[in-house]
Amino acid sequence: MLTTTLAALFLAVLPPAAVLPAAAVPPAAADISPAAVDAYVEDYREKTGLPGVAVAIIKGTKVVHAAGYGKTASGAPVTVDTPMAVASVSKSFTSLAVMQLVEKGAVELDRPVRGYLPEFEMADPRAAVITVRQLLHQTSGMADSAFHERSLPQPDSLKGAVARLEHARLAAAPGTTFSYHNTNYQVAARLVEVVSGEPFAAYLKRHVFDPLGMRHSSTVDTERDLPDSARGHLTVLGQAFAMPEPSGFGNGSGGVLSSAGDMARWLIAQDDGFVPVESLKELRTPSQQNDSYALGWEIGATERGTPVIGHGGDLFTSTAEQLLLPGSGYGVAVMANTGMAFADSSALLDGLVAIIEGGKPKPPSSPYLVTDVVFALMTLATFGLAARGVARSRRWAARRRGWGRLWVLPCLAPLALCAAVTPIFRVLARGSDIMWIQVGYLYPAFMLWLVTAAAAGVVVTVVRLIR
Questions:
Q1: Which helix (H) or strand (E) holds 47?
Q2: What is the pTM of this model?
Q3: Which residue blocks in 85-222 are alpha helix, DSSP H?
Q4: Strand bridging mode 232-236 / 62-70
Q5: Looking at the domain assignment, is residue 122 inside a domain?
Q6: Containing structural domain, residue 235
Q7: Which of 1, 29, 362, 378 has the fewest CB atoms within 10 Å, measured from its CB?
Q8: Do 389 and 419 lie in a common domain?
Q9: Helix axes 444-466, 369-391, angle to 10 degrees
Q10: How far apart are CA 304 and CA 359, in angstroms?
């Protein structure tokens, strides 16, 4: 039963299957008012306990609404100018930076990366033919299953992110398989640094943020660089608790910080001429290996069949979403300061899109509340059973001699499961890498019970053997 429960919980965070445009006539978009947005977001926060969120909605070249709601992890109000983490939405910024170099003739998408970035060395000779396009399409052959990018020691710079690939191998031949892998975009960002001669953060500021008036946006290397406004929460038993982001490197793949006002400017820039038409076409053209993933953008459709272009982002304590509806000219961005296990940004985005399409948002839910209650009760029961086991340890020892003492081993089963959590996750998540502490961020109530059970089992085992 425990294994089944663990499997069900792990499967809950697997990335959903790609959504392709449905064979339906898209509905006409309805005008959405700031008051309707405010009412929906505040109702969502009240029902879910979401601490803070920023929302931007544009139509064409105009901002329909941009606002912040609630508070940051440090207790400050979330405003229209509050920088928050956009996580993997950052990949759209990285792909644009590469395309700007393509426009200047400094980079060709179908040439090998190593021609621009000689330091890009791997233990696999096939890496020599990886192209720039394959990095951005996530078809380079690099994958979590072959290179444990999260659980290995983390770099502190883009140069270090590339250098640690020296002993890595590919999971597949370049250009044959799609595999979502953050290192692809870290290599791409390092390429931008080397070709442009500017640090990646300086490049984005000079060529993207400043020209668009994104005064509250930047990009950072690691979780240590996150300002208080970009830190997030874990939710347990329906209550949000401010927590530091686990250790990790994200520049190029997930390091951008932005505000509601700045994300509105970014969404407008996708179709106002800032990005040349030919570049837009390249950015929105998917690979043959995955027809729903382009260059830092995902191609899909809403539940009503409206074609969309977007990208989501997940940290362990915050999430973000961006979406463009080309047919109506609408664009939406959401940044929430709760982690990937709760998908608040995605739920809010879906609700806002439903309003834009003239429908009604689905009622918000707390997907782990019942599970949290179950594991909280199991934790209390574990404390009780451990106390009982210690109190009766002398009687247990008196009844067992010789090999009979091996009956103490079942008490160590939770400890064994504790040690096996990350390998189990990797199997259930189809090779996705993770650190042990990160599993705790995904399933805090479960991991609290498991650690309690492991400690209790060790204590009971030791006391019984001493007796």
A1: helix 34-48
A2: 0.89
A3: 90-103, 132-137, 158-163, 182-196, 200-204, 210-212
A4: unpaired
A5: no
A6: 20-97+194-356
A7: 1
A8: yes
A9: 10
A10: 10
